[in-house]
Amino acid sequence: MIKVTFPDGSVREFAEGTTGLQIAESISSRLAQEVLAVSVNDQLWDLTRPINDDCTIKLHKFDDEEGKHAFWHSSAHLLAEALQELYPGIQFGIGPAIESGFYYDVDPGEAVIKEGDLPAIESKMNELAAQKSPLVRQEISKTDALKLFGERGETYKCELISELEDGTITTYTQGSFTDLCRGPHLPNTSEIKAIKLTSVAGAYWRGNEDRKMLTRIYGISFPKKKMLDDYLVLLEEAKKRDHRKIGRELELFAFSQAVGPGLPLWLPKGTALRLRLEEFLKKIQKEFGYQQVMTPHIGQKELWITSGHYAKYGKDSFQPIKTPQEGEEFLLKPMNCPHHCEIYKVSPKSYKDLPIRYAEFGTVYRYEQSGELHGLTRVRGFTQDDAHIFCRPDQLKDEFLKVMDIIFIIFKALNFENFEAQISLRDPENKEKYIGSDENWEKAERAIVEACEEKGLPARVELGEAAFYGPKLDFMVKDAIGRRWQLGTIQVDYNLPERFDLEYMGNDNQKHRPVMIHRAPFGSMERFVAVLIEHTGGKFPLWLTPDQVVILPISEKYNDYAFELAAKFNKQDVRTIVDDRNEKIGKKIRDNELKRIPYMLIVGEKEAENGEVAVRKQGEGDKGTMKADDFSAMITAEVEEMMNSYQP
RNA sequence: GCUGUUAUAGCUCAGUGGUAGAGCACUUCCUUGGUAAGGAAGAGGUCUCGGGUUCAAGUCCCGAUAACAGCUCCA
Question: What is the pTM of this model?
Fold first, then answer.
């Protein structure tokens, strides 16, 4: 007998060789139907794999990550089996489960797989799933594995096998398809009830630009048809929230081929929104002891040679600007740090002066690869809500904590309730990729980890994701429909102070090196506005939205009253426009609902006579009539209350 | 940058070798209205750009550019 410990701590005995599935059956038949995989001593196993020792187990259904993972991984194998039948001689790369769904990278040889071929592949998958083929795990020696896949001409698989250690290799077989795979998998393919192949795209073999490009087929699958339908609805919803679409509809920003790719044009309404965000952050930063500075958009090439960026990025950047003066070269600034370092150096600094915090909404230019440009989230000219903090080493952690406070205030003000953090450290295997001493790196990495602990901020640690000059802490928010976006960033830098030879006089009358922190709570104004659009679906908070109120006269007879009110409201800082088109009221309501203006005021004979407005709230409908002055006071109070609640 | 797809009116799109179309938006007129689309008329296009095939190209072929999806990259 073996002792099995469940997640709740209870222990039960089972015969040696009992499987996860049998354990589930012993609890309830319903559980046995829904369970997909099992963790045995925190290792993910097949349900059909016999358990021979005492262990702790956890059963996984579709609603947890591990269950989904096994489900989609098996779906990838099912996709491969279907492809093998439809495209004889096809070669397989890898086919993993991903965050939502799965893919398989394949090399179809001469054949071409297009979007239009996906339905046929889907049908084949459904047909094969219905056959209830068990997925059978087999341990195999390295020699046998190389022989097996070698005979089938699977060069990609053989490459993978040759890098594995003998004795750790397993295969899974369902029907006529055998794949090299660590597992785990579903007991059989019939669990996969609803399949959608979503797209086909190219992907480099092993993610390497220099290797062959394979065909990647993406798909997603579910144990129930209804779940697939819900997922497809979510995709539709995401499409409706696309910031590129809403940005055009609400006249926030645009691109022009004449101006150039990746160079956004901010339209009046988008500019109003952005400036309001900037003012909000400036106000908070003032409270936190920041000083605004301003620097030019260009600087001498030597500035970035000093910083080290020219060596690393110079050849892939906008190229230097020449002048009539022989040998004189300027660069469009790709970041603001060197300029801020020069500001620091304008006068000698004492330890009593630190920390010094220079903030600038600094516009920078980076020559992103053409295929990388995407709406406002990835552009070639953008404005960072940048600041550089110069402090003493003993102030580092405290400054870090204060920056985190600013970021929390911003997330709260804009209703990003779900966020997480990622600590990016250097790759310990590849230390030569980074500049700076071991000692400094370790100090900085420790400060970040401790700051997160002190704030109780759960953070994922990623090795090898650090910038080349220092470790960083990035914030990811989840938007209203659950997608993750990277926004704010805080980066420690021991390197630039060194390169720019920054100093301060200590209380020991000796010169010391300050520590630098780069930070941008929004990230960039472009990216942040894009994420905010997708998060809110274009329904911005009242304090932020470009137009807060639109007045809709019932007929042209009441236009004068409408304009009078608008003028009065605007004087009171209630941002108001008038829809004076010669249209029926129903039409005006519809159009302004679609513009997501928070308040619509309908005015006709009754209202004009009594100095009233009929209030309609966007998305909520008629709210009844009130005095015009009461309405503007209400809006002013609502905005003030919001702004005051975010005082540091 | 790589692979694939796309490019027609301000927007969304139809047009599949024989002189360019719809809906919305826009302009003018009628209408002057009460909570999500009133009616009529009109204006608007070198069919992204450059080559080629053809008697004839928006349509077929090649190239460039841009956008989109994915990959790679992201100071």
Answer: 0.91
Catalytic residue among A386, A474, A547, A579: A386
- ipTM of the prediction: 0.95
- The residues facing A136 across adjacent strands are A173
Given A384, A395, A491, A548, the catalytic residue: A384
Q: Are A58 and A39 in contact (CB under 8 A)?
A: yes
pLDDT of the residue at A116: 74
Q: How many C-beta atoms lie closer than 10 Å to residue A457's C-beta?
A: 17
Neighbours of A373 (CB within 10 A): 15
Strand partners, A201: A216
- d(Cα A508, Cα A82) in Å, to the nearest integer? 74
User: CA–CA separation, A520 vs A475, rounded Å?
Assistant: 10
Q: Token digits for A56? A: 């702790």
Q: Does A337 qualify as catalytic in the annotation? A: yes
| Helices marked H in A241-347 | 243-249, 268-287, 301-307, 309-313, 337-344
Most confident of the following: A125-139, A212-226, A230-244, A628-642? A628-642
Question: Residues of A435-455 as b/e, b for ≥16 C-beta within 10 angstroms?
Answer: bbeeebbebbbebbbebbeee
Distance from C-alpha of A190 to C-alpha of A132, rounded to nearest angstrom? 5
User: Sign of torsion, CA A275 A279 A280 A284?
Assistant: positive
Any strand B atom closer than 7 Å to A417 CB: no
Q: Using omega within 30 degrees of 0 as the cis cutoff, is the peptide bond preceding A184 cis?
A: yes
Lowest-confidence region among A108-122, A528-542, A556-570, A623-637: A108-122
